[in-house]
Amino acid sequence: MKLKKEPKLKKKLPKIFVWTYLDEYKKNKSIILKSIDKVFKSGNLILSNEVSNFENEFSKFTQNKFGVGVNSGTDALQIALMSLDIKRGDEIITVSNTAVPTVSAIVSCGAKPVFVDINEKDFLINSDLIEKKITKKTKIIIPVNLYGQSADYGKIKKIAKRNNLKIIEDCAQSAGALYHGKPSGSFGDLSAFSFYPTKNLGTYGDGGMIVTKNKKLYTLCKKLRKYGMSKLYYSDKHGINSRLDEIHASILNFKLKKLNSDIRKRRRIAKIYNENLKLDDLILPIENRHNYHSYYVYVVRFKKREKLMNYLKKNQIFCNISYPFPIHSMKGYKYLNINGNDLKNTNLLSKQIFSLPMYPELSDSKLERVINVINKF
Ligand SMILES: Cc1ncc(COP(=O)(O)O)c(C=O)c1O
Predict the structure, then answer these.
(1) Pocket of ligand 1 (CB under 6 A)
(2) Residue extents of the structural domains in the chain
(3) How far apart are the first and last CA of the chain?
(4) Distance (Å, rounded) from C-alpha 201 to C-alpha 296?
(5) Mind listing the pLDDT tens digit for each residue in 66-124?
(6) Which mutation among 174, 194, 195 tests ligand 1's pocket best, with the greatest number of atoms within 8 A of CB?
(7) Which CATH class is domain 259-375?
(8) What is the pTM of this model?
(9) Which one of 37, 66, 80, 299 counts the least CB within 10 Å of its CB?
Protein backbone atom coordinates (compact mmCIF):
# COMPACT_ATOMS: atom_id res chain seq x y z
CA MET A 1 0.00 0.00 0.00
CA LYS A 2 1.29 3.36 -0.90
CA LEU A 3 1.02 5.85 1.89
CA LYS A 4 -0.01 9.36 1.15
CA LYS A 5 2.73 11.83 1.74
CA GLU A 6 2.20 13.67 5.01
CA PRO A 7 1.68 17.38 4.40
CA LYS A 8 4.62 19.33 5.72
CA LEU A 9 3.76 20.82 9.09
CA LYS A 10 4.31 24.53 9.23
CA LYS A 11 6.74 25.13 12.09
CA LYS A 12 5.07 27.28 14.69
CA LEU A 13 7.12 30.27 15.67
CA PRO A 14 8.03 30.47 19.35
CA LYS A 15 5.87 32.78 21.38
CA ILE A 16 7.29 36.15 22.38
CA PHE A 17 5.85 37.39 25.64
CA VAL A 18 5.75 40.98 26.77
CA TRP A 19 7.70 39.81 29.82
CA THR A 20 8.99 36.55 31.25
CA TYR A 21 11.33 35.63 34.10
CA LEU A 22 12.06 32.15 32.73
CA ASP A 23 15.19 33.06 30.74
CA GLU A 24 16.60 34.93 33.72
CA TYR A 25 15.89 31.96 35.97
CA LYS A 26 17.57 29.53 33.58
CA LYS A 27 20.68 31.70 33.59
CA ASN A 28 20.84 32.28 37.36
CA LYS A 29 19.18 29.16 38.74
CA SER A 30 22.11 27.89 40.77
CA ILE A 31 22.74 31.27 42.47
CA ILE A 32 19.05 31.74 43.26
CA LEU A 33 18.62 28.22 44.64
CA LYS A 34 21.81 28.56 46.68
CA SER A 35 20.54 31.84 48.20
CA ILE A 36 17.25 30.22 49.17
CA ASP A 37 19.01 27.17 50.59
CA LYS A 38 21.24 29.42 52.68
CA VAL A 39 18.14 31.06 54.17
CA PHE A 40 16.50 27.71 54.93
CA LYS A 41 19.65 26.50 56.64
CA SER A 42 20.10 29.70 58.66
CA GLY A 43 17.20 29.07 61.04
CA ASN A 44 15.85 32.58 60.39
CA LEU A 45 12.99 33.07 57.95
CA ILE A 46 11.60 36.48 58.91
CA LEU A 47 13.22 39.90 59.45
CA SER A 48 16.81 38.80 59.83
CA ASN A 49 20.18 39.39 58.10
CA GLU A 50 19.05 39.14 54.47
CA VAL A 51 16.34 41.75 55.01
CA SER A 52 18.56 44.17 56.93
CA ASN A 53 21.37 43.78 54.35
CA PHE A 54 18.94 44.49 51.57
CA GLU A 55 17.43 47.46 53.42
CA ASN A 56 20.93 48.91 53.83
CA GLU A 57 22.06 48.27 50.27
CA PHE A 58 18.86 49.42 48.59
CA SER A 59 18.55 52.59 50.68
CA LYS A 60 22.15 53.42 49.70
CA PHE A 61 21.33 52.66 46.05
CA THR A 62 18.50 55.22 46.16
CA GLN A 63 20.61 57.74 48.14
CA ASN A 64 18.47 57.42 51.24
CA LYS A 65 19.50 56.73 54.80
CA PHE A 66 16.88 54.18 55.73
CA GLY A 67 14.86 51.36 54.20
CA VAL A 68 11.94 49.34 55.53
CA GLY A 69 11.28 46.07 53.72
CA VAL A 70 7.60 45.25 53.41
CA ASN A 71 5.35 42.74 51.72
CA SER A 72 4.52 44.69 48.53
CA GLY A 73 4.64 48.04 46.77
CA THR A 74 1.02 48.60 47.75
CA ASP A 75 1.91 48.15 51.43
CA ALA A 76 4.93 50.43 51.00
CA LEU A 77 2.58 53.18 49.81
CA GLN A 78 0.02 52.51 52.53
CA ILE A 79 2.57 52.46 55.34
CA ALA A 80 4.23 55.62 53.99
CA LEU A 81 0.81 57.32 54.06
CA MET A 82 0.07 56.01 57.56
CA SER A 83 3.41 57.35 58.78
CA LEU A 84 2.36 60.83 57.65
CA ASP A 85 -0.81 60.45 59.70
CA ILE A 86 -3.18 60.49 56.76
CA LYS A 87 -6.78 60.35 57.84
CA ARG A 88 -10.34 60.27 56.55
CA GLY A 89 -11.09 63.33 54.45
CA ASP A 90 -7.47 64.17 53.61
CA GLU A 91 -6.81 64.69 49.92
CA ILE A 92 -3.88 63.14 48.08
CA ILE A 93 -2.91 64.35 44.63
CA THR A 94 -1.91 61.73 42.11
CA VAL A 95 -2.75 60.45 38.60
CA SER A 96 -5.51 58.28 37.20
CA ASN A 97 -3.23 56.65 34.63
CA THR A 98 -1.50 54.36 37.09
CA ALA A 99 -1.75 50.89 38.58
CA VAL A 100 -4.75 50.49 40.87
CA PRO A 101 -2.52 50.08 43.99
CA THR A 102 -1.45 53.75 43.93
CA VAL A 103 -5.08 54.61 44.56
CA SER A 104 -6.07 51.60 46.67
CA ALA A 105 -3.35 52.52 49.20
CA ILE A 106 -4.81 56.04 49.48
CA VAL A 107 -8.34 54.71 49.88
CA SER A 108 -7.21 52.12 52.46
CA CYS A 109 -6.10 55.05 54.64
CA GLY A 110 -9.54 56.63 54.29
CA ALA A 111 -8.19 59.49 52.21
CA LYS A 112 -9.47 60.81 48.90
CA PRO A 113 -7.44 60.59 45.68
CA VAL A 114 -7.50 63.73 43.55
CA PHE A 115 -6.41 63.21 39.96
CA VAL A 116 -4.23 65.45 37.84
CA ASP A 117 -3.96 64.88 34.09
CA ILE A 118 -0.81 63.49 32.47
CA ASN A 119 1.42 64.92 29.75
CA GLU A 120 0.64 63.65 26.27
CA LYS A 121 4.29 62.98 25.43
CA ASP A 122 5.72 61.24 28.51
CA PHE A 123 2.54 59.93 30.21
CA LEU A 124 3.65 61.45 33.55
CA ILE A 125 1.84 63.84 35.89
CA ASN A 126 1.50 67.30 34.35
CA SER A 127 3.14 69.36 37.06
CA ASP A 128 1.67 72.59 35.66
CA LEU A 129 -1.80 71.38 36.63
CA ILE A 130 -1.05 70.31 40.21
CA GLU A 131 -1.63 73.63 41.98
CA LYS A 132 -5.16 73.98 40.55
CA LYS A 133 -6.09 70.83 42.46
CA ILE A 134 -4.69 71.85 45.83
CA THR A 135 -7.28 72.61 48.53
CA LYS A 136 -7.13 73.09 52.29
CA LYS A 137 -7.52 69.33 52.63
CA THR A 138 -4.54 68.42 50.42
CA LYS A 139 -1.74 66.76 52.38
CA ILE A 140 0.45 64.86 49.97
CA ILE A 141 1.44 64.59 46.31
CA ILE A 142 2.13 61.08 45.00
CA PRO A 143 3.83 61.44 41.61
CA VAL A 144 4.06 58.08 39.85
CA ASN A 145 7.33 57.46 38.01
CA LEU A 146 5.42 55.58 35.38
CA TYR A 147 6.89 53.11 32.91
CA GLY A 148 10.41 53.63 34.29
CA GLN A 149 10.80 57.41 34.03
CA SER A 150 10.90 59.96 36.85
CA ALA A 151 8.32 62.70 37.10
CA ASP A 152 9.42 66.33 37.03
CA TYR A 153 10.69 66.73 40.61
CA GLY A 154 12.29 70.11 39.90
CA LYS A 155 8.80 71.63 39.67
CA ILE A 156 6.99 69.21 41.98
CA LYS A 157 9.34 69.85 44.91
CA LYS A 158 8.84 73.60 44.57
CA ILE A 159 5.04 73.17 44.53
CA ALA A 160 5.19 70.93 47.60
CA LYS A 161 7.33 73.44 49.49
CA ARG A 162 5.16 76.41 48.53
CA ASN A 163 2.03 74.62 49.71
CA ASN A 164 3.48 72.81 52.70
CA LEU A 165 2.80 69.36 51.25
CA LYS A 166 4.73 66.13 51.56
CA ILE A 167 5.82 64.00 48.60
CA ILE A 168 5.63 60.23 48.43
CA GLU A 169 7.26 58.98 45.26
CA ASP A 170 5.57 55.94 43.73
CA CYS A 171 8.71 54.24 42.43
CA ALA A 172 7.14 50.83 41.81
CA GLN A 173 8.14 51.06 38.14
CA SER A 174 11.29 53.15 38.34
CA ALA A 175 14.02 51.35 40.31
CA GLY A 176 17.32 52.43 38.77
CA ALA A 177 15.97 55.45 36.86
CA LEU A 178 17.71 58.82 37.26
CA TYR A 179 16.51 62.43 37.19
CA HIS A 180 19.25 65.05 36.86
CA GLY A 181 21.66 62.25 37.75
CA LYS A 182 19.92 61.44 41.04
CA PRO A 183 18.15 58.14 41.63
CA SER A 184 14.45 57.61 41.56
CA GLY A 185 13.33 57.44 45.17
CA SER A 186 15.66 60.23 46.34
CA PHE A 187 13.13 63.04 45.87
CA GLY A 188 10.23 62.11 48.14
CA ASP A 189 9.90 62.57 51.89
CA LEU A 190 9.26 58.86 51.57
CA SER A 191 9.45 56.69 48.46
CA ALA A 192 7.72 53.40 47.81
CA PHE A 193 9.15 50.55 45.72
CA SER A 194 7.65 47.28 44.52
CA PHE A 195 9.65 44.12 43.95
CA TYR A 196 6.81 42.32 42.18
CA PRO A 197 8.34 39.83 39.69
CA THR A 198 7.84 41.97 36.57
CA LYS A 199 9.58 45.01 38.04
CA ASN A 200 13.09 46.16 37.11
CA LEU A 201 14.17 44.81 40.48
CA GLY A 202 11.74 41.94 40.87
CA THR A 203 11.81 38.99 43.22
CA TYR A 204 10.19 35.59 42.64
CA GLY A 205 7.10 36.56 44.60
CA ASP A 206 5.95 39.72 46.39
CA GLY A 207 8.02 42.39 48.08
CA GLY A 208 8.32 46.14 48.59
CA MET A 209 10.28 48.82 50.42
CA ILE A 210 9.87 52.31 51.83
CA VAL A 211 13.01 54.44 51.72
CA THR A 212 13.53 57.76 53.44
CA LYS A 213 16.17 60.14 54.80
CA ASN A 214 14.03 60.96 57.82
CA LYS A 215 14.82 58.94 60.95
CA LYS A 216 11.50 59.69 62.65
CA LEU A 217 9.52 58.49 59.65
CA TYR A 218 11.76 55.45 59.33
CA THR A 219 11.17 54.44 62.95
CA LEU A 220 7.44 54.89 62.47
CA CYS A 221 7.33 52.86 59.23
CA LYS A 222 9.29 50.07 60.88
CA LYS A 223 6.77 49.97 63.67
CA LEU A 224 3.79 50.13 61.30
CA ARG A 225 4.94 47.12 59.28
CA LYS A 226 4.76 44.96 62.42
CA TYR A 227 1.41 45.66 64.09
CA GLY A 228 2.65 49.00 65.42
CA MET A 229 4.96 47.18 67.82
CA SER A 230 8.29 48.44 69.04
CA LYS A 231 8.53 45.75 71.69
CA LEU A 232 7.29 42.19 71.55
CA TYR A 233 3.52 41.63 71.82
CA TYR A 234 2.78 45.29 72.58
CA SER A 235 1.37 47.70 70.00
CA ASP A 236 1.73 51.35 70.81
CA LYS A 237 0.18 52.34 67.50
CA HIS A 238 -2.28 50.65 65.16
CA GLY A 239 -0.22 49.01 62.43
CA ILE A 240 -0.41 46.17 59.92
CA ASN A 241 1.48 42.97 59.19
CA SER A 242 3.67 43.59 56.18
CA ARG A 243 7.10 41.99 56.26
CA LEU A 244 9.56 41.32 53.49
CA ASP A 245 10.72 37.76 54.15
CA GLU A 246 14.26 36.43 54.17
CA ILE A 247 13.83 34.31 51.03
CA HIS A 248 12.81 37.25 48.86
CA ALA A 249 15.40 39.52 50.45
CA SER A 250 18.11 36.97 49.60
CA ILE A 251 16.99 36.89 45.95
CA LEU A 252 16.84 40.69 45.93
CA ASN A 253 20.34 40.96 47.40
CA PHE A 254 21.56 39.04 44.38
CA LYS A 255 19.40 40.88 41.87
CA LEU A 256 20.33 44.34 43.14
CA LYS A 257 23.92 43.62 42.09
CA LYS A 258 22.82 43.21 38.49
CA LEU A 259 20.13 45.91 38.39
CA ASN A 260 22.26 48.51 36.63
CA SER A 261 23.43 46.06 34.00
CA ASP A 262 19.82 44.86 33.52
CA ILE A 263 18.76 48.45 32.93
CA ARG A 264 21.54 48.93 30.39
CA LYS A 265 20.12 45.90 28.55
CA ARG A 266 16.62 47.39 28.68
CA ARG A 267 17.96 50.67 27.32
CA ARG A 268 19.74 48.87 24.48
CA ILE A 269 16.47 47.16 23.53
CA ALA A 270 14.65 50.51 23.65
CA LYS A 271 17.32 52.05 21.41
CA ILE A 272 16.94 49.23 18.87
CA TYR A 273 13.15 49.69 18.89
CA ASN A 274 13.58 53.47 18.53
CA GLU A 275 15.95 53.15 15.58
CA ASN A 276 14.15 50.39 13.69
CA LEU A 277 10.39 50.70 14.18
CA LYS A 278 9.15 52.38 11.02
CA LEU A 279 5.38 51.88 11.05
CA ASP A 280 3.59 55.10 10.08
CA ASP A 281 1.69 56.72 12.95
CA LEU A 282 3.22 54.48 15.59
CA ILE A 283 4.33 56.94 18.25
CA LEU A 284 7.40 55.83 20.20
CA PRO A 285 8.14 56.67 23.86
CA ILE A 286 10.39 59.58 24.73
CA GLU A 287 13.11 60.01 27.29
CA ASN A 288 12.85 63.46 28.84
CA ARG A 289 15.90 65.69 29.04
CA HIS A 290 17.82 65.12 32.27
CA ASN A 291 16.21 61.71 32.65
CA TYR A 292 17.72 58.27 32.53
CA HIS A 293 14.75 56.08 31.60
CA SER A 294 14.88 52.59 33.07
CA TYR A 295 12.37 51.19 30.54
CA TYR A 296 10.33 49.08 32.92
CA VAL A 297 8.02 48.93 29.91
CA TYR A 298 8.32 50.22 26.36
CA VAL A 299 5.03 52.00 25.70
CA VAL A 300 3.96 52.95 22.19
CA ARG A 301 0.89 54.76 20.96
CA PHE A 302 -1.23 53.76 17.99
CA LYS A 303 -4.77 54.79 17.05
CA LYS A 304 -5.77 51.35 15.74
CA ARG A 305 -4.31 49.66 18.80
CA GLU A 306 -6.64 46.63 18.95
CA LYS A 307 -6.08 45.82 15.27
CA LEU A 308 -2.30 45.98 15.66
CA MET A 309 -2.30 43.98 18.89
CA ASN A 310 -4.48 41.25 17.34
CA TYR A 311 -2.19 41.08 14.33
CA LEU A 312 0.81 40.73 16.65
CA LYS A 313 -1.00 38.01 18.61
CA LYS A 314 -1.61 36.08 15.40
CA ASN A 315 2.14 36.28 14.88
CA GLN A 316 2.76 34.86 18.37
CA ILE A 317 3.79 38.24 19.82
CA PHE A 318 1.98 39.11 23.03
CA CYS A 319 1.78 42.71 24.21
CA ASN A 320 0.12 44.36 27.18
CA ILE A 321 -1.83 47.52 27.92
CA SER A 322 -0.93 49.44 31.03
CA TYR A 323 -3.46 50.74 31.53
CA PRO A 324 -6.65 50.27 29.52
CA PHE A 325 -8.91 51.84 32.18
CA PRO A 326 -8.18 55.12 33.97
CA ILE A 327 -8.87 54.61 37.67
CA HIS A 328 -11.61 57.26 37.84
CA SER A 329 -13.62 55.27 35.27
CA MET A 330 -13.59 52.02 37.27
CA LYS A 331 -16.68 50.76 39.08
CA GLY A 332 -14.67 50.33 42.28
CA TYR A 333 -13.95 54.07 42.36
CA LYS A 334 -17.24 55.42 40.97
CA TYR A 335 -18.17 56.59 44.46
CA LEU A 336 -15.46 59.24 44.17
CA ASN A 337 -17.73 60.94 41.66
CA ILE A 338 -14.92 62.08 39.40
CA ASN A 339 -16.21 62.68 35.87
CA GLY A 340 -12.69 63.01 34.50
CA ASN A 341 -13.61 65.68 31.94
CA ASP A 342 -10.41 67.51 32.80
CA LEU A 343 -8.31 64.35 32.40
CA LYS A 344 -8.20 64.60 28.62
CA ASN A 345 -4.82 63.00 27.98
CA THR A 346 -5.49 60.27 30.53
CA ASN A 347 -8.75 59.36 28.79
CA LEU A 348 -7.33 59.60 25.28
CA LEU A 349 -4.10 57.71 25.89
CA SER A 350 -5.81 54.83 27.70
CA LYS A 351 -7.37 53.98 24.32
CA GLN A 352 -4.13 54.13 22.34
CA ILE A 353 -1.18 52.97 24.42
CA PHE A 354 0.28 49.49 24.69
CA SER A 355 3.65 47.94 25.56
CA LEU A 356 5.96 45.88 23.41
CA PRO A 357 8.05 42.96 24.70
CA MET A 358 10.71 44.26 27.09
CA TYR A 359 12.92 42.39 29.52
CA PRO A 360 16.72 42.20 29.83
CA GLU A 361 17.03 38.69 28.37
CA LEU A 362 14.89 39.40 25.29
CA SER A 363 17.09 37.96 22.52
CA ASP A 364 18.14 39.90 19.43
CA SER A 365 16.37 37.39 17.18
CA LYS A 366 13.08 37.87 19.07
CA LEU A 367 13.54 41.62 19.07
CA GLU A 368 14.19 41.57 15.33
CA ARG A 369 11.06 39.51 14.79
CA VAL A 370 8.89 41.96 16.77
CA ILE A 371 10.27 44.87 14.72
CA ASN A 372 9.86 43.12 11.35
CA VAL A 373 6.33 42.01 12.09
CA ILE A 374 5.31 45.51 13.23
CA ASN A 375 6.93 47.16 10.22
CA LYS A 376 4.92 44.87 7.91
CA PHE A 377 1.54 45.75 9.47
C1 LIG B 1 2.72 52.30 39.79
C2 LIG B 1 2.57 51.17 40.77
N3 LIG B 1 2.33 51.46 42.05
C4 LIG B 1 2.20 50.50 42.98
C5 LIG B 1 2.31 49.16 42.65
C6 LIG B 1 2.09 48.14 43.69
O7 LIG B 1 3.09 47.21 43.82
P8 LIG B 1 2.79 45.73 44.32
O9 LIG B 1 2.21 44.98 43.16
O10 LIG B 1 4.12 45.23 44.74
O11 LIG B 1 1.83 45.82 45.45
C12 LIG B 1 2.58 48.82 41.31
C13 LIG B 1 2.74 47.42 40.89
O14 LIG B 1 1.85 46.75 40.50
C15 LIG B 1 2.70 49.84 40.35
O16 LIG B 1 2.96 49.56 39.07
Answers:
(1) 72-74, 98-99, 101-102, 144, 170, 172-173, 194, 196, 206, 208
(2) 28-257, 259-375
(3) 47
(4) 9
(5) 999 999 999 999 999 999 999 999 999 999 999 999 999 999 999 999 999 999 999 99
(6) 194
(7) alpha beta
(8) 0.96
(9) 37
